[in-house]
Specification:
- About 25% of the residues lie in helices and about 30% in strands.
- It has about 190 residues and is an alpha+beta fold.
- The strands form three sheets. Strands 3, 4, 7 and 8 form a four-stranded antiparallel β-sheet that branches. A three-stranded mixed β-sheet has the order 5-2-9, with no helix packed on it.
- Strand 3 and strand 4 (about 65-75) form a beta hairpin.
- The longest helix is centred in the first third of the chain and has 22 residues, at about 1-25.
């Protein structure tokens, strides 16, 4: 009787352990590096915000649903170059997997935003990603009118799932652009001040 009780306890622990291990997921991203240039002049763009966002996915009846995992950002140097270091991510999320691609946004006031502006190039697929461990050159088009800049600002939105401190450069550059074109700057919402 005592032996059977021990076997049942052991089997329960084993089944529970297998279930928990399937909830733990790991993924390696990056590194990502390259250069941002003016699409017309091919001159490097210093001070452009480069934001990398990572997601996990869960699956439901309507298809996959993305969940914010982490983000990293940097700004381009005087040569227009940037580097987002590798990210090794471990998460404990039942019935989820990692999205295989990192989603990028590259923004500089008075330039079309990557990947949302149709003249930003090249466009890496899926839309908004950059290839890992490969030097890339991203060209941003100059926006010549206030209307183009307003539309670009609207199209290149803010993700409120990302903490402010993780997207500070991107958020602040968007507000710089808003002020330059006569729009109200976006307040820093409480939800992203973390």
């Amino acid at each position: 009787m005592k032996k059977n009780k021990w076997i049942v306890q052991f089997m329960t622990i084993m089944v529970f352990g297998i279930f928990l291990s399937s909830c733990a997921i790991y993924h390696h991203y990056g590194p990502y590096y390259g250069k941002v240039v003016d699409a017309e002049t091919k001159q490097p763009l210093e001070g452009a915000a480069v934001l990398a966002v990572y997601y996990t996915q869960s699956y439901g009846p309507a298809g996959p649903i993305s969940h914010y995992l982490d983000a990293q950002e940097t700004v381009t140097d005087k040569n227009g170059e940037f580097k987002i270091p590798s990210l090794n991510s471990f998460a404990f999320r039942p019935l989820q997997s990692f999205e295989p691609y990192t989603w990028f946004t590259i923004f500089k006031p008075s330039y079309g935003c990557y990947p949302d502006h149709k003249k930003a190039k090249p466009m890496f697929l899926p839309n908004g990603s950059l290839p890992a461990s490969q030097f890339v050159v991203v060209e941003l088009p100059t926006l010549k009118t206030i209307e183009d800049r307003k539309k670009n600002l609207f199209d290149c939105g803010v993700n409120y799932d990302i903490p402010y401190k993780t997207q500070k450069n991107y958020f602040d550059l968007r507000n710089t652009e808003a002020i330059q074109i006569g729009k109200e700057p976006w307040p820093i919402p409480e939800v992203i001040k973390k």
